[in-house]
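One chain shown below:
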Amino acid sequence: MKLKIHIFMNKIKILGLIVITFTIGGCSKNESDTSLSISSDTLLNNEINIECSENNDSIDNIGNEDFNIDSDETDVNNTNSIIQDEEQNNKEDEENIVQREDVLPYENEGFIVFGAYEQDGDLTNGTEPIEWEILDLNDNGTLLISRYILDVQPYDDEGDDVGWEECSLRKWLNDDFINLAFTRNEQDLINVTTVVNSDDPWVLCNRRATQDKVFCLSLFEIKKYYDYKIAPNKCIYYASQKLIVSPTFYTIDQGFYHRSLSSEEYYEYDYTSRYSYTTDCIEKEGGEWWLRTPSRGVPFPMACIIHTDGTFGEDTDRVLDDEEIGVRPAMYIEY
């Protein structure tokens, strides 16, 4: 059946009721006239109701005239544009995620093995599984931090006076690193966490919490999860042998600053009585690595670090664009 409707009018404001009689060809076995009623209110609301007198007949095609309203077209086009943008972004995200066999979490010699990242410095043999130290188990999941210093990055590549929320290191961890180190299935096991950025008493500025999958520990969390000793006569200076962390060969190749604690230095500064260290730390390669906590350093913007010998504090810091400081990623996972 074909219904031909010819309406020769623009939208107009009409008080009352307009009745337009038109002819329908083939609306039923016996040709008949059907009326199209349009009220002024209905017309102004861009709505047209068509009723055919035959209850059992349907309309297969309404001529060649389009009843699309401009505002509706705009809404549909905008919706389609948003959907297309989201699909494009999802496609680009998937293309950026590493494609390899999954390395799902499993325990090995007291560490969790999860994900993979370049570590041995040989770019021809692929990436190596990452070992993680277990720090805590709570409502957020299992808290992990990498066993080794996995890469080297500035806290902020512009050196601006920023906190964790705005720094380039945060963006690198949750964009570049996560997509290089974890497949899609692995990323699904990493929890989005509310990262508190004002938990240290000397951080006077109002640092807002962030929502991250990967982050650096704060100075507050270092004190919470590691045993440490306060250095004599220095109430803001602490030390822990467990914080002496070695870099990977790949990290060293990136220009990372590292050194070992010599036996002469160990005994000269009496690390045993001062910090309760053991001789196991002698000649162990260590490097400096970032915390996310802003320091009290002046006159330049700085962030706290862990020193090569495991010492740390509110004033142990580096300028934000220092490119020789390492990164130990931390995260909560489902395990």
